[in-house]
Each structure stands twice: as structure tokens, then as C-alpha cells.
Specification:
Blueprint: E1 2-8, H1 14-29, E2 33-36, E3 39-43, H2 47-60, E4 66-72, H3 74-78
Antiparallel strand pairs: 1-3, 1-4, 2-3
Pfam families: CRISPR_Cas2 (PF09827)
Family: Belongs to the CRISPR-associated endoribonuclease Cas2 protein family.
Keywords: Antiviral defense, Endonuclease, Hydrolase, Magnesium, Metal-binding, Nuclease
Length: about 100
């Protein structure tokens, strides 16, 4: 599963910019990576993991602005088509490698 976090936070005042920056930093601490400005993604290996990360995002949502979370399967995410201007292609995030413990 892939989690997408979309957000539109106010950034007019210095305090609002600090709150928005803190929100982004907390997303990255939780393993999200920026796909576009205000769009962050994270791979989750299971529904249980997904629920944990949704709960974490919910706990850091600022008082103002809008935050949305979308969950898609690996298959759905694999069908994404990206364009970057005139460049031929860029690497999109793939499933993370699974760690093995012995």
C-alpha cells in the first residue's frame, strides 16, 4: 500500500510558515518523501502499518489548513504516469527493499 498525504497550509505569516515547515519535517521523520510540493508519499507493508501512519499524521495535523490522506495499492501506484517537462524521465519511488533479520 502507498499513502499519499496532500496538504494546503497557510504560509502568510512567519508563525504559519514555521507550523507548515514543522508539519513537513514530521512527515519526513515518519518516512514520507516529497513527491511534489505539498504531496508526500510513504510505502506501507500492511493495513496495520498503514493504520499506524494514518494515526501519526492525524496527530500532527495543524489547526488551520487542509490535510488529506489517500491510500492506493501497489498495483494502482504502478500505473502512475509522470511527466517532467522536456526531460525524458526521472526515477519514481519504488517499493523499499525489505530488511531480513537472521
Amino acid at each position: 500500500m502507498w499513502l499519499f498525504v496532500f496538504f494546503d497550509l497557510p504560509v502568510v505569516t512567519k508563525k504559519e510558515r514555521k507550523i507548515a515547515a514543522t508539519f513537513r519535517k514530521n512527515l519526513m521523520k515518519d518516512g514520507f518523501v516529497m513527491l511534489q510540493f505539498s504531496v508526500y508519499i510513504r510505502h506501507c507493508a500492511s493495513k496495520e502499518s498503514q493504520a499506524v501512519h494514518i494515526k501519526r499524521v492525524k496527530s500532527i495535523v495543524p489547526e488551520t489548513g487542509m490535510v488529506s490522506i489517500l491510500s492506493v495499492t501497489d498495483k494502482q501506484y504502478g500505473d502512475i504516469v509522470n511527466f517532467w517537462g522536456k526531460e525524458k524521465s526521472k526515477k519514481v519511488p519504488t517499493d523499499p527493499l525489505q530488511l531480513e533479520f537472521f
